[in-house]
Every structure is written in C-alpha cells, then in structure tokens.
Amino acid sequence: MQKGNIGVTTENIFPVIKKFLYSDHEIFLRELVSNAVDATQKLKTLSSMGDFKGELGDLTIHISLGKDTVTVSDRGLGLTAEEIDKYINQIAFSGANDFLEKYKNDANAIIGHFGLGFYSAFMVAKKVEIVTKSYKEDAKAVKWTCDGSPEFTLEDSDRTDRGTDIILYIDDDCKEFLEESRISALLNKYCRFLPVPVAFGKKKEWKDGKQVETGEDNVINDTTPLWTKKPSELKDEDYKKFYRDLYPMADEPLFWIHLNVDYPFHLTGILYFPKVKSNIELTKNKIQLYCNQVYVTDSVEGIVPDFLTLLHGVLDSPDIPLNVSRSYLQSDSNVKKISTYITKKVSDRLQSIFKNDRKQFEEKWDDLKIFIDYGMLTQEDFYDRAKDFALLEDTDKKYYTFDEYKTLIKDAQTDKDGTLIYLYANNKDEQYSYIEAAKSKGYNVLLMDGQLDIAVVSMLEQKLEKCRFTRVDSDVIDKLIVKEDAKNEELEAGKQEVLSIMFKSQLPKIEKAEFHITADSLGENAFPVMITQSEYMRRMKEMANIQSGMSFYGEMPDMYNLILNSDHKLVKDILSDENASCEDSIAPIQKSLDETDSRRKELRKSQEGKKDEDIPTAEKDELSSLDKKWDELKQQKEKVLADYAAGNKVVRQLIDLALLQNGMLKGEALNNFLKRSIELIG
Ligand code: ADP
Asked: Which of 148, 107, 110, 150 is nearest to 129 (CA)?
C-alpha cells in the first residue's frame, strides 16, 4: 500500500470547497456521472478505432444507494495506478485562495478553474473511494481512498471487471443525498439526456396493490434526445412530443427552430415559440443549456439575446465555456457569435414562414407579437430583419407590414406639413365611437393593445420616416390630422366662458382626473360634447408607468379636454336659454366687472416701468381692493351660472353622456344619470 499527499499548494482545500460551495452541493452528481460518461465514450472510441479489442458489453452506468454511500459505477476505460497519480493526485491549486474568495458563490467557476470535477465529491462526502481497473492489458485493479485531508492511500484491489466505481461516504450534514427521491430528482435534472444509459435501481411495477421491483434496470435517460437527430428525419409530431416532455403543463408551441451548426462553433438545439396565454405567464429561464447532453443551467442570459430568453427549448454546445462566471461569458467571442447566429436563425425562420405561409403567420401573429416586439425594441440587428415581416393590426383585424400600411394611409392621413399620421386605439370597445368617426372620415385605425405597444409606438416614430402616432381619442376628429390651417369661426370669448363655467360647475368629482373645458365648432352632425386626452400627456404618463425615473409624470392627474360642439343644436339651446334666464342677474354684475377691470388696467398702465417705491401707497391700496372686488364679482357671476346649470338637465345629461362614452361614469353619478334619463324620457 502506498501513501502520499495530494499535490495541493493550499494546505487543505477540501474544507474550503465545502464551505464556499454550499449552495451548489448537488452538482457533485452531475460531475461524477459526466466523468463516467466520458470514460465510457472514450472506450467506445478506442474500440471503434481498433485500439481496444475486448468486448464492450453492457455499458450502462449505475447509480446505487447504500446505507451511507452513493456509488457511481461505469464500465468505461478505468484507471491505472499511474493514471490515478497523474489525474487525481496532482492538482495544481495556484492562487487558490484568491480565486475562491472571488468566486465563492459560483461553484461552476471554481470547478472549471481547477478542473475539479472529481473533487466536487468532497462537497458531500467525508470519504471517497475509487475502485477501478483499466481496460489496458495486464492493468492491476486499484483502490484509492481519501478522507478529505490532503492524504490519500492507494492499494491493490480484487476488482476483476473493467471500469470504475466511485464510492462516496456521505457526510452527516448531507444525508439528503441518501434519499432515493432526492437522487432521482437530481438525475432527472442533470442526466436526463446523457448519451450513455444511466440506471438508478430497478424498474418498478404495481402488483397486488403494491409497488414491486422488476428485474429490469430503471434507465432514467434518453440517450438520443431530439436535438441530436437530423431535422430531415423528424416530423412535426416529434417536435411537439419533445416539447410536451420538456414542459408538460404548456400549450402546444407556435413554431420551432432546429439549430445545427458545426462552424465556426458547435451548437445544436431546438427553440420553441411558446403560446403565451396571458402576459403574466411570460417568464424567462425556460431554455435549458446543455454541454454534450449534460444539463448545465436554465439561465441562458448572456448566451442568447435577451428577447430570445422568452423562448423555450434546449441549446447544446461544447463551445460555450460553461464553467466560468457570467461576466466572463458576456465578453467571450464564441458566445457573441452564438448569440448573433441564433438571432439570425430565428429571424430567418420567421421570415420564411411569413413568405411561404402568410395566412398562418397572421393567424399566429397575436401570440408571436410579444416576441417580435421585444426583439425589435431591444436588438437593433433584429429590428433590421424584422421590419420586413413584423405586422401592424388594424381595428378590423386586418394585418399589414410597415410598408404596406404606409402605402395604405399615405393619401388620406398626411397632414398639412407632410407628416404621416398613424391613428391608433388601444381598446376597441372603449374607443368605439372615436374609431367609427375616424373610419367614416376615410382614415384607418390601428389596434395597439399589446403589452409593449406603448414602447413600440415610440420606436416606430423614430424608425419610420416623418410620421407621428396619435391615439384616436386624443383630439376631435378634425384636429387629429390637420389638413389646412383652421378657419372655423370661433365662439366669442364671453360665450366660451359661460359654457366653461356652467359645465365645470356640474362635473362630478373624479379622482385623479382634471378637465379643461372648451367650445369648438365641430359641425352640426358631430356629437354635442366629447372628451379627449392629449397624446403627449397621456403618453408621458404611460411611459412613466413602465420606466423608472419618470415618476413625476406618473403621479400627475390625468388631464382631459371636455369639448363642447358650438355648432350643435343642444349647445346652442343651452346658451340661448341661459341668456334668457340669467341676463337680468348677470348684466349688472358684468357691468361692475367690466368697470373694475378697466380701472384696474388704467392703474396698471400708469404704474408700468415705475419702481415700487415710486408708486403712491393710495394707488397700491386701490389696486389691491380692485383685485378683491373683481374676484368677488367673478364668484357672484359663477354662482348665478352654476345655479342655473344645476337646474338645467341637459347640461348635466350631456356631461354624463360624455363621461359614459369614456367609461368614466360610475357609482352615484351613474345612478343619478339613469334616474335623470328616465325622467327625461317621461
Ligand atoms: P476533468 O474531468 O475535468 O478532467 P476531473 O477532476 O473530473 O477533471 O477528473 C480528472 C481525471 O480523472 C479525468 O480527466 C479522467 O482522466 C479521470 N477520471 C475521472 N473519473 C473517471 C472515471 N469514472 N473513469 C475513468 N477516468 C476517470
């Protein structure tokens, strides 16, 4: 028996491994089974090249549980005593402490850095044995034992069969790894698609109401998963079935893309566009990353472009440096190439479906939209490809490419400055009457009700030439697209004011909403009253909701315009009726108001340009008392008008109708409206 010290420069590395890598303990199983797979694959290669002439036999890798042991057994090429010395005993830990300190939370980085796969066994074991016999002729079987100190022993073994057993004596604080269910779950996570059969215990079956073991090995993996096969040999059903295996709870996918590259890097995989039932379901980290069929991670950020992390499926590449930290990954040139390649593949596939089967593409657009929008918003090179197949949907459920849509609206929707105005709605029902008004004017209205459409609108305004997006309810129809400078006769200022005061006084209080009331000549056939919301303010608020650092806008109330149509008979009637009923009380108030105001103006004019100390005190006093008087008179006038308006059912009915049209009439106000309506009918 031989004794020796493992070649570690840091005195005792194992407690360190254990301490720092606590959260990732479970990967020991992946590392050991991967080693077993490697040893098996190497033997197969030797055999196929004629360098190994014996029988390969059954190459299944077995995982077995003892009372306090976990054993991984393979029938691969085994190790000679010299090889153990070379590959297991000599590990160079230069600068180990610094590195461990830096990457203490990243077991992959540490294992990769030190080539530490085998030693990860010490994360869970207090003692490890290797019992092995090399495939080489005349090789002696050996047993290596190490208890986690730098000391090991190496002795002869009576093993007769070729291959290796790695026996872990599980540490007291890692007893969970002695549970069948825990190991079973880990094998399913890490080993499900390994290329060599891996068996864990025996298959079970139900007999007489009990589960009993059969004689057959319980192989837990699929050694030739779908992505390793030739796309030409696969049918749609195969892809769908594989998807169901991966995501048993998900709906059928929309499309899939089978990736297969050999140069300049190796990459295989299948990416699926999932069907997203609701926005909430949109989750990242569904793509699984494999390295030669060994599961590595399901967080692929940095490897695939951000927007593609919304896809599902598997990627397998031996060229992605898996055992390194994330920040390193992002600067790796292979990874960058892979990311560019995947983007291109995805857009090529979408482009070809669009070209060859536009009908199908349109049918699936609602589900696809979120991916394509996200891609266009976050990835310049994807926008450049997607702009030819991304679609715009109008409120009649027709679909157009960006170019097609431009051609469609160019004639009717270019304003006097040559800007193309894209009209949109984000809710077909709520904005129904505005959409109808626009359509009857020969305009087309887009439906922009997607989760990302607020941002898409801004993006398109920047990308498309000389254009502006405006929501269909952001102004009265004649002002949505201004064709020539307005020459509408305006209502005289006095009447504007009267209408404004009356309607303001009767508006129910709505939380976080403010109204600006104006009168405008909109034509006899337009609605007597309507509510609009300026595009700019609304969009600022919407952006504030999705972007941080804009909360100033988010907290502001919503600003609406209540627009009275001065051409409409009902509005004209209100004005003439008001005049008849209020003239007598208002005339004297108005006279005083006018007198007060002209005296005020006179005084202000004479004070113009004078320094404060040069103005006589008496004059200052007079001015401030005039201001006060004016305010009082104004209030009196407003009161007369408000009292009148309160008794005018048409004023209140019109306000309520406008609110109702915009879904803003609720609670008591809605109830009052209903009662008043019934009265008015009767
Ligand atoms: P790596 O696998 O990254 O080289 P490991 O520490 O996991 O590093 O293993 C070191 C070496 O030990 C391997 O390269 C291999 O030569 C040998 N080895 C480990 N496990 C086995 C096994 N089950 N059968 C044969 N050789 C093995």
From this structure: 148
**Rounded (10°) CA dihedral 506, 511, 513, 518:** 0
Do 272 and 338 share a domain, yes or no?
yes
Closest CA to 310 of 278, 337, 274: 274
The amino acid occupying position 547 is: Q
The count of C-alpha atoms lying within 13 angstroms of the C-alpha of 267, restricted to the half-sphere facing its C-beta, is 26
Number of H helices, E strands in the chain: 22, 22
Distance, in Å, from the CA atom of 464 to the CA atom of 445, rounded to the nearest integer, reads 17
Bridge partners, residue 566, by sequence: none
Whole-angstrom CA distances from 189 to 290, 297, 298, 308, 610 are: 11, 10, 10, 22, 86
Q: Report CA(195)–ligand 1 centroid distance (Å).
A: 17
Q: The tokens 């290669």 sit on which residue?
A: 45
Give the count of domains, the chain. 4
Nearest residue (CA) to ligand 1, atom 20? 35
Strand pairing report for 420-425 and 467-471: parallel
Between CA 650 and CA 638 the distance in angstroms is 18
Q: Give yes or no: residues 363 and 268 share one domain.
A: yes
Ligand 1: residues within 6 Å at CB? 31, 35-36, 39, 74, 76-79, 87-88, 115-118, 164
CA max distance for the chain: 125
Q: What is the tens place of the pLDDT at every residue in 427-484?
A: 999 999 999 999 999 999 999 998 889 889 999 999 998 999 999 999 888 889 988 7
CB atoms within 10 A of CB 273: 24
Give the gyration radius of the chain's Cα atoms: 39
Q: How far is the CA of 653 from the centre of ligand 1 (A)?
A: 84
Given 219, 237, 266, which residue is the final one in a domain? Answer: 219
CA of 627 from ligand 1 middle (Å) equals 94
**379 within domain boundaries:** no
Report the range of poorest mean pLDDT among 79-83, 112-116, 392-396, 440-444: 112-116
Candidate from 6, 17, 38 with most ligand 1 atoms within 8 A of CB, to mutate: 38
Please check whether residues 615 and 634 belong to one and the same domain. yes
Report percent pLDDT > 90 for the chain: 58
Which residues, in sequence order, are CB contacts of 343 under 8 Å at separation 6+?
A: 305, 308, 375, 379, 381, 382, 385
CA distances from 346 to 266, 512, 523 (A): 17, 44, 52
Q: What is the pLDDT of residues 7-33, one digit of tens each?
A: 554 455 666 666 555 557 888 999 899
Q: Which letter does DSSP use for residue 301 in this model?
A: B
For residue 321, give the 3-state DSSP assignment: coil
Residues near 638 by beta carbon (within 8 Å), at least 6 away in sequence: 501, 505
Residue 468 maps to a domain: yes
Amino acid identity of residue 612, one-letter, is D
The answer to whether residues 205 and 236 touch, using CB atoms and an 8 Å cutoff, is no
Whole-angstrom distance between the N-terminal and C-terminal Cα of the chain? 111
Rounded CA gap, 367 and 279, in Å? 10
Nearest CA to ligand 1 atom 3: 115
Q: How far is Cα 569 from Cα 97, in angstroms, rounded to an integer?
A: 87
Query: 431: domain range?
Result: 390-480
Residues whose CB falls within 8 Å of the CB of residue 307, separated by 6 or more in sequence, listed in order: 371, 374, 375, 377, 378, 379, 382
The residue type at 311: L
* Ligand 1 centroid from CA 130, angstroms: 11
Judge if 347 and 240 occupy the same domain: yes
State which of 6, 84, 87 you would mutate to test the pocket of ligand 1, scoring each by most atoms of that ligand within 8 A of its C-beta.
87
